[in-house]
Amino acid sequence: MTKDLISALRPALVMTLLFAVLLGIAYPLALTGIGQTLFPSQANGSLVRENGRVVGSTVVGQAFGSERYFHTRPSAAGDGYDGLASSGSNLGPTSRALAARVKDDIARLSETAPGRPVPPDLVTTSASGLDPDISPEAAFYQVERVARARGLDPAAVRRLVDRSVERPLLGFLGEPRVNLFKLNRRLDAFGAKPAT
Amino acid sequence: MTVQGWLLIIVFIGILLLLARPMGQWLFALYEGRATPLHRLLGPVETRFYRLSGIDPNEEQGWRRYAVHMLIFNVALLLFTYAILRLQGILPLNPLGHDGTSGDLAFNTAVSFTANTNWQSYGGESTMSNLSQMLGLTIHNFLSAATGIALAFALFRGFARRETKTIGNFWADVTRVTLYLLLPLCVVIAIFYIASGVPQTLAGSIDVTTLEGAKQTLALGPVASQEAIKLLGTNGGGFFNANSAHPFENPTALTNLVQMLSIFAIGVGLTWTFGRAVGNQRQGWAILAAMMTLFLAGAAIAYWQEAAGNPVLHQLGAAGGNMEGKEVRFGIAQSALFAVVTTAASCGAVNAMHDSFTAIGGMIPLFNMQLGEVVIGGVGAGIYGFLLFAILAVFVAGLMVGRTPEYVGKKIEAREVKLAVLAIAVLPLVILGFTAIASVTGAGLAGPLNKGPHGFSEILYAFTSAVANNGSAFAGLSANTPFYNGLLGVAMWVGRFFIIVPMLAIAGGLAAKKYTPETAGSFPTTGPLWTGLLIGIVVVVGGLTFLPSLALGPIADHLAMIGGQLF
Questions:
Q1: Residue A22 lies in a domain
Q2: Residue A194 within any structural domain of the chain
Q3: Which of A175, B274, B299, B500 could share a disulfide with B340, CB 3.0–4.6 Å?
Q4: What is the pLDDT of residues A135-147, one digit of tens each?
Q5: What is the pTM of this model?
Q6: Pair (A20, A51) in one structural domain
Q7: Do A175 and A127 fall within a single domain?
């Protein structure tokens, strides 16, 4: 046993260092090189710039709470959509805090679209707190409110949402969804032009 | 539940079955030490590694030597990572200026990544520098996976070899698996991830001025390179706190499918490799059939419960499936399936928060881990864990028909059965023992976020995840305390190596036995009867022990949920 132990020392130490260099330094750096060369946009976070400023990422969600925009889901990342503190609420199915939060959110939302069932994703926090999407139902639910705030024709806003719905790959892979950053940017561009 | 959801599950299983043979063949070449097409490129690296560290790859090792070399290597890796985490404040590549971690967190994390668990008491983006992620953690993702596969090879040799004292060379197994399987596959998968929107940069973060004019800072880093091995090696430790739910780790439904396939790919292949190694392919398929049956049952129940949703929220007016803690791009089906995959294997990556699942939906991941993660299981660990159950199954069958049990040409005698029981007993002993301690001490009870039975589930889930080397969590538990870091660290170490050492002892003993040819009186270890017996043994031996604890946690939680009782 002692002989086995002593014979293991040199391979263990040297292999640790060799693999550290190969797997801990060479591998990630090589991929950084490949990624930055082949896919520079994605490798840096799929950022969108406007007038030299980064206004968001098409991959990660940002908070939208203004009446003029389609709203995001509630978020448990920091104070909401904190890009340095991704997190879900971790509230369980029998949590009093969860039920109270959902109840408040439903009451608040129902005022904007009375009589219509609230889409569940609009009153639940996502797993990351940075969900970039909402369901098409959640987007259509907000059409009247956004149209009112912007003084636009609701039918035109609905068409805009319709065009923004992304369908599942091959019909079954993924869920139908609306990327809010893209939709709200289209909305800004749309509002800048005279309504047709 | 929807047709699309079931189509996803069927397509997923279909692709896996197609992967079994090519993956198994590739693994078999490495098992035998044969040259692969990649040797031309990476062969010189392999040779140089051996030369610099004074290794003779052709030296055959007995099980004791194999075990000691494996352990010393793992201890060296553990200390290496402990040092990096403690010193990260003064080391380079630390763009967000994180300090060195506390001693108990560094201990917990180093054990966690060494033991292929990747339990994370910390949030990645708020704790770890880029150097720590790359050098301290990514290397474990490779080497703990390679160690697992090497150990499976050693056990296969025990079954396949006759009247010899040796079961292979640990260093050759680990090096070959890393160089010719894990590394090349990860390069390909990581490039696919980058193309799909996973960042790969040395920058730490980027400031965003949102459309509403607010400031948002997004954490970035070398994510894709870590993501690829995180899943392929069934490690599961996320770059970010939200793990594979974070859009930067898992941006699309397609990356999600690739992640789920990565988790199972090697484990499925190893069942084929086992059949080939013992000279009867049907032995491998019988094991895979038992695993897939258990997997499908779990997936169906979890999907059904999550799609049915939470009656408490239905009553408030939020109809439909349970979307709390789930991402819209994955929805119910992909979230439930991922949860079952990640706990059937010892991965532990999550794309939805298990803590917020319905009571029974969250019990399935818990139960998967309590079975010992032998439903496909961790890379290597799944198949060697399952073979321990197979030894028990032939023993039980032998008792029933009154013959000395045999398995794939080897007599299974008292020594094998005792060692197998020893290894299998580690799980309930440590899980239930430690859960009990945490449930009655102040430091333990300070952990749970949720109250009532769900709070108990959080504690039970943590120790189950640690001992089973999974790493997923009911993440409401505040685990970054000396109490939990210490206890969970011990649990992870015991859960890994107290199973491995008896398993290697079995391998050594089997290799020394002579071949016993199958006769008309042998209990057949292929076909549906055997597969059914295997499933029964896994569920009864692995699962029943935990039934009382499940009754106190998720089952009580379920009854409260349908009764509208809140905590």
A1: yes
A2: no
A3: B299
A4: 999 999 999 999 9
A5: 0.96
A6: no
A7: yes
